[in-house]
Amino acid sequence: MSWEKLQSADLKYRYDPYLLPYDTTAEAPPLEGMIGQERAVRATEFGLRVKRHGYNIFMTGLTGTGKSSYAREIISKISADEPVPDDWCYVYNFDHPGEPIALNLPAGMGVKFCRQVEEMLEDLKQTIPKAFDGEEYERQKASYVKDFQETRSNLLEKLSKTAQEQGFSLKRINAGFVTVPLVDGEPVGEEDYAKLDQSVKDELEKKSTEVQLKAMEIMRRIQAAERDLKEKFKQLDQRIALAATGHLFNDLLEQYSDFPAVQKYLKAFQEDLLSSLHEFRGDDEEQQQQLPLLWLRRQSQEQTEIRYKVNLLVDNKETAGAPVIYETNPSYYNLLGRVEYENRFGMVMTDFSMIKAGALHRANGGYLILQARDVLTGMQSWEVLKRVLKTREIRIENLGEHYGLVTMSTLRPQPIALQLKVVIVGSPYLYQLLYHYDEDFRKLFKIKADFDVEMERAEENTVKMAGFIAYHTRQQSLRHFDRYAVAKVVEHSARQAEHQEKLSTRFNEIVELLCEADAWAELGGLETVGAAQVDKALAEKAYRSNKYEHKMLEAVERGQILIDLSGAKVGQINALSVIELGDHQFGRVSRITATTYLGRRGIINIERESQLSGRIHDKGVLILSGCLGQRYGRLIPLTLSAGICFEQSYSGVEGDSASAAELLCLLSSLAGIPLKQGLAITGSVNQQGEIQPVGGINSKIEGFFDTCKLKGLTGDQGVIIPVQNRRNLMLKEELLEAVEQGKFNIYCISSVNDGLELLSGLSAGEQQEDGTFSPGSFNQAVLERLRQFHNALQGEKEHGEGAERESGHGSSCRG
């Protein structure tokens, strides 16, 4: 006999509260950081320290292992010692207005520069109009006008004299001059002109042409003088403005002498200002003349002010160390930034002041943390993230341009150089998906930080767990936990890990337990959380989620689900499975039945035939054929038909954890030997007849225990599990008490023979050298039945062949 009956001490790991060196967590030093994630921690720290292109980090692991919290914690710690990145501004591009210029300044200087430019702009609005109110400016301007008027008068006088010499007078019109012929010093009218001789007319026409040419030359000279006057006015205005404002620009140029790009911008600013002085002079006469278009003038003035302002895109004045940005909504525009638009008098307009920063701008020079699922589900978010990481620059573009949806002109801001470490948090499934199907992913995310769901239950880790509890009691203002409560939390962690020598690293669930236990302590008016409050929190959480489990037990109790828990039956066995419903899982008892009969169809999986079976379950059933052949097919070929069915199962069957139960049920049907219905079994089987471990062992055992408890515990009931699952047992206290009192049993087996003996009470029988088994054994009974099937089918075949020969002989005689 190789099976073993387990004692209550074998069914759960118990943590000794007195191993803790303090009475409550108030005395325990709080522990920050990760516990039991050495592999992930080393990978993350290495990835954060390597400042090379492509060494971004993908943190992968199951939900609740603390990936996001750790990412923010470790990055914040490392970034605190790193330099603060530059501020970034966008300014007007005077050469190419559609391409705003990006300027970077040391942290804190961006807002200073922005304020200084605004103050200078206000000074310019006050200084420039005053500069042109002086008497010297008016005298100089009047002098220029006088010189021009003298020049024009001289030219016009000269022209008039020339015309008179030729016998003409000049009449001024909008387009220039008209020559009027003179006769005896008097202008000739049209009627008198018509009466003149043709020769006189020809002579007058000739002289008129000469006068017109002279007039055109004089007009050109006058126009040149006018242009010269305007240029003198312009130069005068610029000299006056430069004298009044030059010191403002010089001060800034001196302050930013170490920043060539800023100096270039300020010089362009000054040049544009000197050529746009009319926007600052506030000419009242001009305003009166353009009164019907005041709104256009006001808009022009606003645009002028905007043109000379600075758009502070990123301000790192208050940043300590490198920035750490956790973007919870990584849409295209939230990552890349955008150029906004506004409706002005029915027209959609924009300018560089409407450029808004994205998460990439704010994180530039530091770290950006993203959730993989969020960035992958955002339209073009993943593509734009890859693009900026590959090009190492942030180029703001309208998303509509990618789809040809935007036909109007828009701004194209100069790109900003990018120096960034991206950390993405996601599931193992998403990591594998990206790694295999996105060739850019493996180039851009070279560091994989893989978070485990469990850690060794070493004394060091249990003490760290207590420190973890102490940290969160302080951080979340919870009551402190006494040593017994800490022990309960450690034991629950081992149950989550489903291993007596492991602890779970799904710390989110641990924190939830701490908060809920604290709430029950508060409701009980307690100052400290004890073991009872931890148990209460676990029980209440299970109760909130176990409605479906309760309904199934109720159906068993009322006989709607047929389960036998006593006696023995042929071809029938109780198998165990797990049902997972979100945050709750529980064990379900399923009746499996098997029928065997004469035939050649082999094992029929009724679940598969009805399309209710998954691939893994189908594989498990196919393994049964190999196991039968290995055990009983050495002497005779297997010739049988058999049907295996999960009774009252309508939602599908998946997994191979019931394959051992299916095989034992099939053998019972073949041997005609009944199996004890008070025992349930879980475990998979291989072709050698070895029992293999399965998951969800605690839920399965407790599910059968609860089912037996409904109809009363007899002491003969129990569960058979694979021996390898012994270390996975972390059963509830009620079940342990039942085992201690002999009302319930847990057995470990390692082979099919062990299961046969436990379920039938008979010897399984060892296989002899000739392939047979011990007389009177279970296996021998199976072999005998298979031999009967074979002989029956062989006899039928021989009878059929004999009939064919007899039929053929008769035909020959008749021939």
Present the secondary structure layout.
Blueprint (H helix, E strand, L loop, with lengths): L3 E2 L32 H12 L7 E4 L6 H13 L7 E5 L9 E5 L3 H23 L3 H31 L2 E6 L2 E8 L2 E2 L2 H6 L2 H58 L4 H15 L3 H4 L2 H6 L4 H14 L3 E4 L9 E3 L5 H5 L1 E2 L2 E3 L2 E3 L5 E2 L2 H5 L3 E5 H6 L3 H11 L1 E2 L4 H4 L13 E2 L3 E6 L1 H10 L3 H4 L2 E4 L3 E3 L2 H17 L7 H15 L4 E3 L2 H17 L7 H15 L1 H11 L10 E2 L2 E10 L2 E14 L4 E4 H4 L5 H18 L8 E6 L12 H13 L3 E2 L2 E3 L2 E2 L5 E2 L4 H15 L6 E5 L10 H8 L4 E5 L2 H9 L17 H37 L1
Parallel strand pairs: 2-17, 2-18, 9-14, 14-17, 22-27, 24-25, 27-30, 30-31
Antiparallel strand pairs: 1-31, 3-4, 3-8, 5-6, 6-7, 10-13, 11-12, 15-16, 19-20, 21-26, 22-23, 23-25, 28-29
Helix pairs in contact: 3-6, 4-6, 6-7, 19-21, 20-21, 25-29
Outline the structure in words.
The structure is a single chain. With 815 residues, the protein is an alpha/beta fold. It has four domains: 13-36 and 454-545, Helicase, Ruva Protein, domain 3 (Orthogonal Bundle); 37-85 and 319-451, P-loop containing nucleotide triphosphate hydrolases (Rossmann fold), CATH 3.40.50; 128-289, no CATH class; 550-764, Ribosomal Protein S5, domain 2 (2-Layer Sandwich). The protein contains 29 helices and 31 strands. The strands form ten sheets. The chain has an eight-stranded mixed β-sheet. Strands 9-14-17-2-18 form a five-stranded parallel β-sheet. The protein has a three-stranded antiparallel β-sheet with strand order 4-3-8, covered by helices on one side. β11 and β12 form a beta hairpin. α4 (135-165) runs antiparallel to α6 (198-255), α6 (198-255) packs antiparallel against α7 (260-274) and α19 runs parallel beside α21.
